[in-house]
């Protein structure tokens, strides 16, 4: 694990790298590892840090079928609210326009106050726990993108953004802004995509 800076210049503990993960797997299994993906690296890192439970029990308690994606009209309602706060600074623990936001506070406020989905204040991990897990290929605007180990935490999920399509998210970096999830930084910290159950917006 190494210290680095994120795209906003903040110091972070970086995700363990490909070579480190491969070396650890080879040491444990005695086998060479080829053609491993970055997502598999991230899953390995979660297991190495949080134990085997994280491979199958990472806190997610959603048991229903995968909901349908939000309609264009519902996504537009969500973005009408969320884009009001572009440029607001990141404030740890912030959860409203009067305090500004942190990443989960921004998401909870945007979904709830747009009328799309009632999402009481919780952490990025708490939001992830309520979502149906979906693949990147199946992600649609209005879904959520989750990241891991963007700071030191006892939980796998540490950052969240609203997926807006075309590999872009709107998230509370510093400040709130759009960002590509395919940059070296965000792709190396990618954890999962998720979809909230259909709320009042549908």
UniProtKB/TrEMBL annotation:
Pfam family, one: NLPC_P60
Annotated keywords: Hydrolase, Protease, Thiol protease
Taxonomic lineage of the native organism: Bacteria, Bacillati, Bacillota, Clostridia, Eubacteriales
Domain of life from the UniProt record: Bacteria
Domain NlpC/P60: 72-197
Species assigned in the record: Qingrenia yutianensis
Protein's GO biological process: proteolysis
Homology family: Belongs to the peptidase C40 family.
Record protein name field: C40 family peptidase
MF terms in GO: cysteine-type peptidase activity
Entry-linked PANTHER family: BIFUNCTIONAL MURAMIDASE_DL-ENDOPEPTIDASE CWLT, MUREIN DD-ENDOPEPTIDASE MEPH-RELATED
């Amino acid at each position: 694990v190494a210290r680095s800076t994120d795209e906003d210049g903040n110091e972070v503990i970086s995700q363990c790298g490909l070579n480190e993960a491969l070396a650890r797997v080879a040491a444990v299994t005695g086998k060479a590892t080829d053609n491993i993906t970055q997502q598999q690296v991230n899953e390995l890192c979660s297991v190495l840090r949080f134990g085997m439970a994280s491979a199958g029990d990472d806190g997610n308690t959603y048991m229903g079928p995968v909901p349908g994606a939000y309609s264009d009209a519902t996504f537009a309602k969500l973005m009408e609210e969320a884009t009001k706060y572009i440029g607001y600074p990141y404030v740890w623990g912030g959860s409203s326009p009067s305090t500004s936001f942190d990443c989960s506070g921004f998401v909870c406020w945007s979904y709830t106050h747009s009328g799309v989905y009632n999402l009481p204040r919780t952490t990025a991990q708490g939001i992830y726990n309520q979502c149906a897990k979906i693949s990147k290929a199946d992600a649609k605007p209005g879904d959520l993108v989750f990241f891991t180990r963007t700071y030191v935490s006892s939980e796998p999920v540490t950052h969240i953004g609203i997926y807006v399509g075309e590999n872009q998210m709107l998230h509370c970096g510093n400040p709130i802004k759009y960002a590509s999830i395919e940059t070296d930084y965000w792709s190396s910290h990618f954890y999962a995509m998720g979809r909230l159950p259909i709320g009042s917006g549908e």
